[in-house]
Design goal:
5-stranded parallel beta sheet; binds norvaline; 4-stranded parallel beta sheet; 2 domains; binds phosphoric acid mono(formamide)ester; alpha/beta; globular; Rossmann fold
Length: 305
């Protein structure tokens, strides 16, 4: 039987050492890109990009990344493929993976991604599900390492919804060895199994000021994720105390950084002043999506980092 491909559905699919190597390689690819080096190890390779939700950063970073590596990327939306007309996931996976070399999927249910991966002959990358957003964490960890060095032993404050990003931060706390303080309103906690599996690495603190005290990194995300648009109004009221603003950043360490995966809603989960402050490195974070996913594709396709 053919060997099963390596997938990246969760950060936990890669070992601590593999994640560290991918991030190191991402910074190297970034330097090469900034120097103008031509590096095309994926010549002749094709990436299938399945998007069932909107995207700016993920789409552009994967498409441009594949092109810079010498390959080609195809954008596949359910609106104009048979995926949107009820062709079984298993069949779509079997067919697509006989034609392309690697596939990234952004969808709703995580189980759908797992089902697809189980029937794919080629590596599958999670480009966001309702449960996890591991690609964003590659970029976030790269960004922390580039600005402040090793994140091991540091304290990270997650302020806001216990959502897909929060879950990936919990997994990152396990793999990268930092402590995660989670401040979320009651009823918006992260998945208890994901939290429990992290042991002492992650804890719900509830109060945002307490969670941010002494933190080396403060992270937030939108209050209503994609698919929760009708809850936007109710959530704005429930999350009102969970804004990352100057008062909250004043609780954090003097050299604390601010991260947001973007898109951001200024005046909701983050104040305009924090978004545009020197602590905020959100544009580097966004750029690093490109470099870290190039490193990930090299790793999955060539087995090297
Ligand atoms: N951060 C992120 O995944 O952005 P997009 O939704 O624009 O891809
Ligand atoms: N939690 C957000 C992240 C967007 C990149 C969402 O799922 O919409």
């Amino acid at each position: 039987m053919a060997q099963q491909p390596r997938h990246f559905l969760s950060l936990l699919d890669l070992s601590r050492e593999e994640l560290r190597s991918v991030i190191r390689r991402a910074s190297e690819l970034k330097r090469m890109q900034h120097r103008g080096d031509i590096h095309t190890p994926l010549k002749g390779k094709n990436l299938g990009m399945v998007f069932e939700k909107s995207s700016t950063r993920t789409r552009v970073s994967f498409e441009v990344g594949m092109s810079q590596l010498g390959g080609h990327a195809l954008f596949l939306s359910p609106r104009d493929t048979q995926l949107g007309r009820g062709e079984p996931i298993e069949d779509s996976a079997r067919v697509l993976s006989r034609m392309v070399d690697i596939i990234m999927i952004r969808t709703f249910e995580h189980e759908k991604l797992e089902l697809f991966a189980a029937h794919s002959r080629v590596p599958v990358i999670n480009a966001l599900t309702d449960l996890l957003h591991p690609c964003q964490l590659l970029a976030d960890m790269q960004t922390y390492f580039e600005h402040r060095g090793n994140i091991e032993g540091k304290t990270v404050a997650w302020i806001g919804d216990g959502n897909n990003m929060c879950h990936s931060y919990i997994n990152a706390a396990r793999r990268f060895g930092f402590r995660l303080n989670i401040a979320c309103p009651e009823g918006y906690d992260p998945d208890p199994e994901i939290l429990a599996a992290a042991g002492d690495s992650a804890e719900i603190i509830r109060d945002p000021m307490t969670a941010a005290t002494g933190a080396d990194l403060v992270v937030t995300d939108v209050w209503a994720s994609m698919g929760q648009e009708e809850e936007q109004q109710a959530r704005s009221e429930i999350f009102a105390e969970y804004q990352v603003n100057d008062a909250l950043m004043a609780q954090a360490a003097a050299d604390a950084l601010f991260f947001h995966c973007l898109p951001a809603h200024r005046g909701e989960e983050v104040s305009e002043s924090v978004m545009d402050s020197p602590d905020s490195v959100v544009w580097d974070e966004a750029e690093n999506r490109l470099h870290s996913q190039k490193a990930l594709m090299e790793f999955l396709l060539l087995g090297r980092v």
